[in-house]
Amino acid sequence: MADIFSPWQVGSLELPNRLVRSATWEGMAGRDGTPSHDLINLTADLAEGAVGLIITGYAYVRADGQSSPRQSGVHIDACVGPLTRVSDAVHKAGGKVALQIVHGGGQAKKSLCGAEPAGPSAIDHPGNGAAVRGLGFEEILQLIEDFAWAAARAKAAGFDAVQLHGAHGYLINQFLSPNTNQRSDQFGGSLENRARFCLEVLRAVRDAVGPDFPVLIKLNSEDALADGLQLADSLQVASWLSEEGIDGIEVSGGVRAAGKNSPSRAVQGPGQEGYFLDNARRIKEVVDCPVVVVGGFRSPEVIAKALDQVDAVAMCRPFIREPHLARRWQDGDLSPARCISCGKCFIVAAREGVACGAERLEASA
Question: Is residue 170 flagged as an active site residue?
Fold first, then answer.
């Protein structure tokens, strides 16, 4: 069994412990997508808190792919300089940082990016009901190139790795899922065709960043919808990604339309932690790369047991409340994370940038 604080490796990247900060929407970028001082300080604080790998969320690769207010961008070369301030701050604090890149597809918002949301097929998006325009063939090829350029910018900005967002109903997941991909050309229909966009993105990104720069993916193990992506399909996609040389897979699941089975769920005790662990174990069996699992982890003893089955454990909400949680555990205080899974952090993010809403309420009481 790997110890929580034992080192491990993702591609060429050496990491000091098995704790990963899973990417989230921070709501701390300017209107042009560049990081604010608050975002720089947040990531530096996580590094000072001894998080093994920090994954920043979720930077749009093209202006028409923005889905949240004050979302980070990596869509133009002018983003490189400002993003360097994030990687520099993390490195000065002794940490490692990856940039997650995304296109919102049908989950992009016209009010933010000025364009009609576009995805694999012309449908009403199941998560928000918005009308989605179907992408043309040449547009798909351009989007593949846009992901590659975004990854190259992440490398130029000094990040240690890049992560493709292939989960939670965003564009890569939309292509993988039969719920949102109803195409009949080479990018739709069979699983092989539905996976083509994801695999072509990986190939283009690899060409852009070179063989030694770590490329990861956050992958939905299932959409938790009857007509969505199923685990059996994700096992095959993960195997193909492994064959193509992906350096690591973070296993997640769920989409907005899945209700209580969405990516962020209530966790009321150790028995409810690790709700994607079994899926991650199954994926670990069919790939040659490291596997990270996310999903409601709160207790070091539960994490330690999970490391019997996967390589690392990722958390999001606990690190919002306690950026120094990893260091607290490392220093011997092994009480569970203080996160209560209330979701108020995202309500705060919509107003002023991500922070623990429960903690703010307690402080004002």
Answer: yes
